[in-house]
Structures are given as structure tokens and as C-alpha cells.
């Protein structure tokens, strides 16, 4: 299955969480339910083993199990993007070779974190991945997590010189930066929002959809909002965002995936359990989530049995 991330057919991607049972083992039944809930409500592709999946807290064998399970459960109904990340590009490529990727259409590769490379170093990183990964690559700029911000000029160089890098997930939340990217990238390169709180505004600027955390719980509403924004219906899309804004905020105020797991738990799709050092949502946040869900009538939505 081909994936053209500039197409309106791929305006909503959802980052899948990793549900756990009471013993903090992967709850594959809950993961199946989340997948089916999202597909039934129009999600167009999934990101597997991203930040939301608590990937740094999974063993390699668990990553393999999840990658295989999602591929088998989805069974070609929507495209899949596999998350890869790390500081050492050789290790990233080694993990890519060892993970089951046959059912995946692209990989999402975050910038190296903690070591804070220069802009030239960031280009060299993606250049290495471009040489050693034999499928489309989505770069990922998320400076709040990595400590490094990929500048517009670096993204343009990657977009113009590295043939396998087809898109960037831009999660800085900086709309001016986003606008500059949209105006300057080549016509075959997608600029995807990775920040739920600014996604509608990014789309109104000309973005190519969103890879969302919050949409795992509100896929139908989020998809409608992004579709309206892509059509240029500014007032209607912002009106819908205003209705969803409180719940979207709840998914980030105590960190991701703490918030989205608490929301999904309210919807009875999975437990809210996380692995240390991540911890479950506070009682204050849980009450805010309950109120926000009631306000947008989420409890009336059909669930997958």
C-alpha cells in the first residue's frame, strides 16, 4: 500500500498507545479495541511505536510483538508508519533491520535527543538514515522533547537532497516556523502537524494533516475539524476546535501518554496504567477529563466490544 502524506486521504494519523494490564504487561485485547474504534471512526493511518506508545520503556521483543500485532490486526485496512528513534543512527538502522516492517509504508524518525547536535549534524543524521533505510522516511522535529530545533533551512536541505525523506512531522508548535516550511518545501514533500493544540491552525496555513495523540479518543471529531480546515472553512473548523480544546489540553497537561491513557480509560477502551517513570493522571486531571468528555458527549459514542 502506497502512502502519499500530502494527499487529503491521509489528513489524520493517530499515534497508538501501548495499553497495559494490571501487571504492566501489554494488553493486546485493549490495543485491538483501540485500533477498531479508530478505524470505525475514520482514522486514515496509524503511527506504531511512537512517543505515545511509551516505546523507550518497551523491550525490543515487546516492540516486535506490537509491530506484528498491529500489522495483523489492521490487515491492510489503513497504512502504518513505524516509529524509530535514537541517538546513534547505526543502532536505529540496526533496529529497523530487525523489526518486522513488511506491512509498513514508512518510518517516523525523530531527531537525535539529549546530545543536541548542530544543524549540520542533524542533516548528517538523516543523510545516514536515507542511505541505510529502504523505505520512505518521515523526519520528526519535537524540540520540547529532544532539546534541538531543526531549522527551516535544514528541513529544506533534507527535503531537496534526500530522496527517501518524504515528510516532516513538525511538533514545535511554532506557527511562524510552520508557515515558512509550508511556503518553501518542494511540492512532493509533506509538512504534517505534530501538535494537537495548533493542528487546525497549521492546516489552515496549508499543512498536510496531523499525527495526533488526542484523536485516538476523538477520531471522528478530529477528522471533521481537519477536513474543514483543509477546505478553508476557517470559522467552522475553529468552532469545532474550541469545542474539543479542553479535552485536547487534558492530553498534554501532565504529559503524554498520561493524558490520553486517562481519556481512553474514561471511555473504557484501556486501563490508565503506565510504566515508571511515567505515572497515572492526578485526580484533578481525571475530573477535568470526565467533565470534558461529558461536554462533548463522548460517553454516548459506540465502543468496540
Topology of this structure?
Layout: E1 12-15, H1 28-40, E2 45-48, H2 60-74, E3 80-84, H3 89-98, E4 106-110, H4 119-132, E5 137-141, H5 143-146, H6 152-161, E6 165-170, H7 175-184, E7 190-193, H8 199-205, E8 210-212, H9 219-230, H10 234-250, H11 258-266, H12 283-295
Parallel strand pairs: 1-2, 1-8, 2-3, 3-4, 4-5, 5-6, 6-7
Helix pairs in contact: 1-2, 3-4, 4-6, 8-9, 9-10, 10-12, 11-12
How would you explain this protein's 3D organization?
By secondary structure, the protein is of the alpha/beta class. It has twelve helices and eight strands. It is globular and about 50 Å long. It has helices at 28-40, 60-74, 89-98, 119-132, 143-146, 152-161, 175-184, 199-205, 219-230, 234-250, 258-266, 283-295, and strands at 12-15, 45-48, 80-84, 106-110, 137-141, 165-170, 190-193, 210-212. The protein has an eight-stranded parallel beta sheet. The two termini are 28 Å apart. Helix 1 (28-40) links the parallel strand 1 (12-15) and strand 2. Mean pLDDT is 94; it is low at 300-305. It has a single domain, classed as Alpha-Beta Barrel (TIM Barrel). Helices cover 44% and strands 12% of the residues.
Amino acid at each position: 500500500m502506497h502512502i502519499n502524506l500530502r494527499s487529503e486521504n491521509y489528513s489524520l494519523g493517530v499515534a497508538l498507545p501501548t495499553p497495559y494490564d494490571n501487571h504492566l504487561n501489554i494488553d493486546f485485547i485493549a490495543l485491538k479495541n483501540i485500533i477498531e474504534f479508530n478505524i470505525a471512526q475514520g482514522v486514515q493511518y496509524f503511527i506504531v511505536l511512537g512517543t505515545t506508545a511509551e516505546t523507550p520503556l518497551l523491550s525490543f521483543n515487546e516492540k516486535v510483538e506490537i509491530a506484528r500485532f498491529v500489522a495483523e490486526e489492521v490487515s491492510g485496512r489503513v497504512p502504518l508508519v513505524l516509529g524509530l528513534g535514537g541517538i546513534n543512527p547505526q543502532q536505529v538502522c540496526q533496529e529497523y533491520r530487525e523489526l518486522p516492517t513488511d506491512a509498513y509504508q514508512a518510518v517516523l524518525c525523530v531527531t537525535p535527543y539529549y546530545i543536541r547536535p548542530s544543524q549540520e549534524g542533524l542533516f548528517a543524521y538523516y543523510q545516514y538514515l536515507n542511505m541505510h533505510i529502504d523505505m520512505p522516511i518521515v523526519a520528526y522535529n519535537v524540540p520540547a522533547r529532544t532539546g534541538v530545533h531543526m531549522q527551516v533551512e535544514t528541513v529544506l536541505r533534507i527535503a531537496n537532497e534526500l530522496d527517501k525523506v518524504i515528510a516532516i512531522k513538525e511538533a514545535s508548535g511554532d506557527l511562524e516556523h510552520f508557515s515558512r516550511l509550508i511556503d518553501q518545501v518542494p511540492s512532493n514533500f509533506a509538512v504534517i502537524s505534530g501538535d494537537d493544540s495548533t493542528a487546525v491552525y497549521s492546516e489552515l496555513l496549508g499543512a498536510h494533516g496531523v499525527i495526533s495523540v488526542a484523536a485516538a479518543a476523538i477520531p471522528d471529531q478530529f477528522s471533521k475539524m481537519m477536513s474543514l480546515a483543509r477546505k478553508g472553512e476557517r470559522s467552522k473548523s475553529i468552532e469545532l476546535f474550541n469545542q474539543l480544546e479542553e479535552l485536547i489540553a487534558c492530553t498534554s497537561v501532565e504529559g503524554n501518554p498520561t493524558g490520553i491513557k486517562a481519556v481512553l480509560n474514561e471511555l473504557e477502551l484501556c486501563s490508565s496504567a503506565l510504566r515508571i517513570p511515567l505515572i497515572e493522571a492526578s485526580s484533578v486531571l481525571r475530573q477535568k477529563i470526565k467533565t470534558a468528555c461529558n461536554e462533548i458527549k463522548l460517553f454516548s459514542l459506540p465502543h468496540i466490544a
